[in-house]
Specification:
Length: 221
Amino acid sequence: GGDGTLLDTVTLVRDSGIPVLGINYGRLGFLANIGKEDLNQALDALVNRQYVLDKRTLLHLDANLPLFGDCPYALNELSIHKRDVSPMIKIHTYLNGEFLNTYWADGIIVATPTGSTGYSLSCNGPVVFPESGSFVITPVAPHNLNIRPIIVPENTIISFELEGRTDGFICTLDSRRETVSNEIQIAVRKESFGINLIRLNENNFLTTLRNKLSWGFDKRN
């Protein structure tokens, strides 16, 4: 599959430490970045141990109401959204218990470094190196134009209280989603375990950025 399939695999691997190799049968493939035409080469590299393991950070969701069963973690991001065509919502945000800001927006994203090239990037979030040890807080369509994404250390506990004119919001972990009520209180922190992604020796993060985002390619010629 593509990146979505790999994100679903994280809920199966959990804390087992089993490495994951992504073969891209989807579209862009930031995480599953080995093309199907390179499958045989990738298998040879595995047999000959010509690869490295990239340990990727997960985020963990705590809430005052049950959410996401026994898999309250994500490789890419957590997001909170208004429902359907309802008005923007107010998201009171705290870092380690200290007030940061109230976001008037359609929603908010907390992305891991791995997730910084996903949904957060499409909302003008920064690209963050996988080993940077940080989280990215990115508002979705904020009402105030001076509100911008912010990078915080990965040992930060990020908590939210929500307000809106309608009863209910959408909360997502990667590709999974649940509807939550106004009484929900949410906190995000670094998960106690990570995920090992297999990377072939000739690939690295800069190569992926250039290939997937077409950096350095002049399309005028």
